Amino acid sequence: GTWGSDKLNASRQENPFMMTWVPGAARHSVPNMTHGEGVYLFDDKGNKYLDWTSQAVCANLGHDVPKAVVDAAAQQMATLPFVYGGIGMTEVRTRLNQLMSEILPGDLRAAVYPSSGAEANEAGIMMARRFTGRQKIITWYRSYHGATANAGAATGDFRRWYGSDEVPGFVKAFNPFPLFFNHGGPNATEEESVQAALNMLEEQILNEGPDNIASIIMESVVGAGGCLVMPPGYMQGIRALCDQYGILMHVDEVMVGFGRTGKLFGFQNYEGVMPDIVSSAKGISSAAIPMSMTACNAEIMDFFEDKPLGWGSTYQAHPVAMAVAYENIKYLIENNIVGRSANMAPLFEACMQKLANDHPSIKQYRAIGMFGCFDIQDTNGANPKLQHEAAHQAFHKYKQAYIENGLVGLHRYPHIHCAPPLSITEEELIDGFQRLDRALDVLDDALGF
Ligand code: PLP
To answer: According to its record, what are the GO cellular component terms (predicted)?
Structure first.
């Protein structure tokens, strides 16, 4: 091992590469990971980190790929590594389609298997536009849908501002539970607030012209935007509005699908809600390979029997990716990973509640299944782009403490996401929250509490 840190730093200097959502120079400060084991990652300096966000909320089985998945990938590569979807059918696609039809509720069926969440949304947007003959898509401000042009334009958070803001055809709506105001007035009940939010959305639909709106795209539980769980009745209300105006309901399950919320799909937390289009990625392969899926109902599937979808990608339905997804999903089922996520939820939430109570720097939290988010106490925290100098310096110190306490994960000020691998043990989970507890002590101090 001469690949030590001096050599590594020299290499990062001489062979620069770009980071994605942070400046390129950040490459100098990210650890050089060498291997993974269970919920842990190890770097070249011998540090061991507990993966507190399953990377980008995708490595849901931690960092050991089940043997059956590895074997299936190797076997697929050895027998039939690649067939382009437009040229040939494969046995693995038949098998995966069959499995999907068993696990997808209602008449939802897997239509295409792209390689990323953004592409799964692009395919879903194309389906909706061509099926309805309408162009506009309604999405939420507090949302993230990916970084291709349309997925970026569908995105509500600041990442849209970099270059997708001028893409036509997207209309932004407010999420039903703004963090800092109440739709229904200061004394409204939750039910009244939900109805007010739905009324506001209907007003928006009417003013955009219902006949112009192809779909409403929403995350069933908003992920990067802060683990926002829909209030009771809201998703049912969206379904009803969609039915009333012939708008398709497209649910983005990219982050929370495949067990994160304690249900296989996040929308299954809302009784009786059946989307028309579902996009999914991340957990479909537990990050072992780039893979995603767009599913749709039977009517949409039938519609495209005699028309092209009008969307494609070289690696759509890649046999190796499908072999990995098939074995991964089988593993999730056989090891009851979704049930495990549901069973861990009370402990998970109790730990979140304790930290929220103990740390004045935390304003509030939300949790569902094995997914949670704290909001940092900060008057400007509602706006991720408002650079609140003091808070940012404090956040920097917190991030430092986070890594010094042996945690690694995504950071999205003013949120603190908690999304460890679904395979985590109770002891490891408690240990993770204790590490976070120590990092939050530093945040409390840094914010002057
Ligand atoms: N949709 C949601 C809800 C996501 O959380 C993400 C990624 O974080 C995406 C879409 C985009 O997925 P990808 O990065 O694989 O394109």
So the answer is: cytosol
Domain boundaries along the sequence of the chain: 31-64+336-446, 67-334
Ligand 1 center to 282 CA (angstroms) = 8
Sorted by sequence, the CB contacts under 8 Å of residue 195 that are 6+ apart come out as: 184, 233, 237
- CA of 119 from ligand 1 middle (Å) equals 9
Can you spell out the DSSP letters for 166-229?
Answer: T-SSEEEE--SS-SS--TT-TT--HHHHHHHHHHHHHHHHHHH-GGGEEEEEEESEETTTT-EE
Query: What pTM does this model have?
Result: 0.95
Bridge partners (DSSP) listed for residue 408: 51
Tell me the sheet residues that pair with 172: 139
Tell me the Ramachandran region of residue 293: left when phi exceeds 0, alpha when psi lies from -120 to 50, beta otherwise: beta
Architecture of domain 31-64+336-446: Alpha-Beta Complex (3.90)
Residue of minimum CA distance from atom 10 in ligand 1: 145
Give per-residue pLDDT as tens, 294-304: 999 999 999 99
Residue 377 has pLDDT above 50, yes or no: yes
Burial label for 87, CB within 10 Å (0-12, 13-18, 19+), is exposed
What is the C-alpha to C-alpha distance for residues 298 and 109, in angstroms, rounded to an integer? Answer: 7
Q: 67-334 has which CATH code? A: 3.40.640.10
Residue 387: pLDDT over 60? no
219 lines ligand 1 (CB under 6 A): yes
Q: Enumerate residues 6+ apart whose C-beta is below 8 A from 183.
A: 174, 176, 193, 196, 197, 200
